[in-house]
Amino acid sequence: MSGQDGRVPDLLRVRELLTDAGYTVAGVRELLGPVAGGALARDEIVPALRATRGGSPLEALTRLFWLQVPVDAASLKMDALLDAGLVEGAGGELRARLRVEPLESVDGDGHAGYAVSDLKIRPGSGRVPAGDHVVGTGGASANLARLAIHRAVDNVLDVGTGCGVQAVHLAARNPGARITATDVNPRALDLAAMSLALSGEGAPPEFIEGSLLEPVQGRRFDLIVSNPPFVVAPPDGRRFTYRESGLPGDEFCRRLVAAAPAHLNEGGYCQLLANWLHVDGVPWDERLASWTDGCDAWIVQRDVQDPAEYAELWLRDSCEAGTPEYRARYDAWLDHFERQGVTGIGFGWITLRRSESPVVRVEELRHAVEQPVGGYVCDVLDGFASAAEFSTGCGRPLAAAPGLAQEQIGPPGAEDPERIVLRQTGRLRRAADVGTVAAALAGVCDGALPLDPLLAAIAQLTGMAEDEVRAHADTVLPELIADGFFS
Fold it and tell me: Which of 60, 195, 412, 481 could make a disulfide contact with 164, Cβ separation 3.0–4.6 Å?
């Protein structure tokens, strides 16, 4: 299907209305201020209602599309909104039929576009989403947008596009790129088409109905992104298409990872968010590594929840907490996990890059990292590949990463420290215990000088044999290169 249908002229008029009013993330943030904005992040709208009582176009749009309350029809030029199907009018009031959210660029330095989705169902409303409900922006979509590579790409696939958040971000970063978006939910494709049309000019995107990579058989892309239906739920007959695939366990994510290499151009990337099961007696990292084939892979676990925490999270997400069915639904989730031997559910990022000599890294990073990760994720994978090939005899000079800090730990006044720690002040903010040799190299490696004279100088200064210094460097440097301390 194509998003370039008869609504486009109406949506262009709506875009003009939104931008003229300053309906952007920055504009709404300034309008609400920190107190009302913070409350709204917690799904409390009363402070935001108080902050938007002035009747300006920006206040009216914020109330209409973000807070989802009726506004006076006289406060807005409503014809374009009505013609585009975004609102309905009755009794002198306008009510939103759909939710329209502004998107901020992942760098936080500008407006990226708009996302059109179904109205948000808030906790306590007494309602649960319909099976084909199309959600708007959220923490997961923001995570993936910040993870996606910043390198220019020409041919992009968004698998499970939903309301089109990733497609909007990628179109904003890659003007003129060919964008294909798929989803099993035809309503999602319809709203994604509205999101792209409302967000800006560019090559007409392609929208295709279907699951996983089935709709694009035989095609290859520079970048595949997916915020997939990764939620692991019991097979009890109720399914929310936006979050659950219907496949058992984490099978949807495994199949997507396994199929992606055949759909990537050489050097192309696939990036997705995923849940994965921690199964009793099976190391989770080995299980995840077995999913990959034919690609460099960086799999990062950002969080783990026990089965009860996980069930509570997703029952709150679907506004089922407090309903008569809540206890039975909760019990069904726990029964399902117990039968499968599930001890926990991990959440994280998966980045693949098609490569002739694949390197796989599975790790856990729970701490805050520099955002957006997409600004340096290519360098991270380059580091893994460089580390696999490194030896001090290869003749390649090293450069210490910018922004390293050195900490020395020991009793006050001691001649030698008990520990030396190198710490990254940016990017992945790793810390590594190192010895004298690595610490000295971090202080002198600038990417210009060869290693041989540097290692000889360190041997002379420390009194170590040169062969001993070189052997130590050969042992520790590959891991430090893989971790981003050297390049």
Answer: 195
Pairing of strands 206-209, 178-183: parallel
CA 123 to chain centre: 24
Q: What is the pLDDT of residues 244-286, one digit of tens each?
A: 999 999 999 999 999 999 999 999 999 999 999 999 999 999 9
Output the pLDDT for position 4: 47
H helices of 341-405, in order, are 377-389
Q: How far apart are CA 335 and CA 327, in angstroms?
A: 12
Report how far residue 232's alpha carbon sits from residue 247's, in angstroms, rounded to the nearest whole number.
9
Alpha helix ranges (H) inside 390-465 = 436-444, 451-462
Kindly state the greatest CA–CA separation across the chain: 89
Domains parsed from the chain with CATH numbers: 6-97 (no CATH), 104-370 (3.40.50.150), 390-483 (no CATH)
pLDDT tens-digit readout, 342-363: 999 999 999 999 999 999 999 9
Rounded to an integer, what distance in angstroms lies between the CA atom of residue 339 and that of residue 330?
Answer: 15
- The terminus-to-terminus CA distance of the chain in angstroms comes to 46
- 71 CB contacts (<8 Å, ≥6 apart)? 60, 63, 64, 93, 94
